[in-house]
């Protein structure tokens, strides 16, 4: 019986169109725009982070999709764990009001992950499948997603109760 064959993994990072797509999306999320008159760059990640809960969850979803793409195209388990740590750090600290917004402007997790994968490719160790690791990462992202959503609900309840107890406008 014939076994289905996987297409060979390209020898370089730049030879694979899917990985170049990952690099373009990472740039969009982390450094697409430049503050006029400076060398400071930022992307959609910190801008979306200004939207409570929804912004953080959307950037987590994009980062997770990038991570899964990189995993399917040669990232080893050790590299994926480091990438997931970058994303989780960005998500957890980025969810903190004000401090998280400042952190999002400085910490570019998606570009860090692309750099990790580029180094991995340069070392010639980019042949992996990692299906079990994908399942574990999805579970981890679901847990983080749930915690961020729960934190948002708790924060909204607290604000609601505070405003209910201390009305801004009295009649």
Question: What does this protein look like?
Answer:
The protein is flat. It has 7 helices and 2 strands. A two-stranded antiparallel sheet has the order 1-2. The model has no long low-confidence stretch (mean pLDDT 81). Helix 3 (54-72) packs antiparallel against helix 4 (77-94) and helix 4 (77-94) runs parallel beside helix 7. It has 171 residues and is mostly helical.
Give the key terms.
single chain, mainly alpha, 171 residues, two-stranded antiparallel sheet
Short recap of the structure:
The chain is an all-alpha fold.
Blueprint of the fold:
Elements: H1 17-30, E1 33-34, E2 41-42, H2 44-48, H3 54-72, H4 77-94, H5 99-106, H6 109-122, H7 131-165
Antiparallel strand pairs: 1-2
What is the helical fraction, as a range of percent? Answer: 55-70%
* Biggest sheet details: 2 strands, antiparallel
Q: Globular, elongated, flat, extended or rod-shaped: what is the shape?
A: flat
Mean pLDDT: 81
Number of strands: 2
Q: Sketch the topology as an H/E string, one letter per element.
A: HEEHHHHHH
Distance between the termini: 80 Å
